[in-house]
Amino acid sequence: MAGEPQDDCLFCKIVAGQIPATIIRETATTVAFRDISPQAPTHVLVIPKAHYANAADLAAAEPQTAADILSEARQVADQDQLESHRVVFNTGTGAGQTVFHAHAHVLGGRGMQWPPG
Ligand code: 5GP
Ligand code: ZN
């Protein structure tokens, strides 16, 4: 069924507590934890507890949870006292997605370039 945990999914395992992560926030629908390979002083992943392969699939199936991810991204930025921050949803292999459980990257704490690579 859509949204159900997947046995072979790394982020489902983090949601289930089967793999450790530095969790900094949790809501009924989301978990936020620090990226294992940070690309900025703040690099937090905000994920839905439900499993969807990417943010587009999440938004189609559960628009309220997709909105919750954005609210949580803002809370992460506040919590880390970021003056500016960037929220990124890599969607598909060609865009750099490597973990196929929807997630927002919240990046901040350094200057950033545009366009991204
Ligand atoms: P993507 O490339 O799919 O947009 O982002 C996946 C992110 O997950 C990467 O930034 C990567 O560093 C992070 N990541 C991969 N494995 C783990 C892990 O086991 N724990 C944590 N905290 N982050 C992970
Ligand atoms: Zn998953």
How does this model look, in words?
The protein is α+β, with helices and mostly antiparallel strands. The protein has a single domain, classed as HIT family, subunit A (2-Layer Sandwich). 26% of the residues lie in helices and 21% in strands. It has three helices and five strands; from the N terminus they run αβββααββ. The chain has a five-stranded antiparallel sheet with strand order 1-2-3-5-4, covered by helices on one side. A hairpin with a 7-residue loop joins strand 2 (30-34) and strand 3 (42-48). Helix 2 packs across helix 3. The longest helix is centred in the middle third of the chain and has 17 residues, at 63-79. The protein is globular, with a radius of gyration of 14 Å. It starts with 9 loop residues before the first helix and ends in a 9-residue tail after the last strand. The mean pLDDT is 97. Residues 6, 9, 11-12, 51, 101 line the site of zinc ion (ZN).
Name the CATH architecture: 2-Layer Sandwich
| CATH topology group | HIT family, subunit A
Q: What count of domains describes the coordinates?
A: 1
Structural class determined from secondary elements = alpha+beta
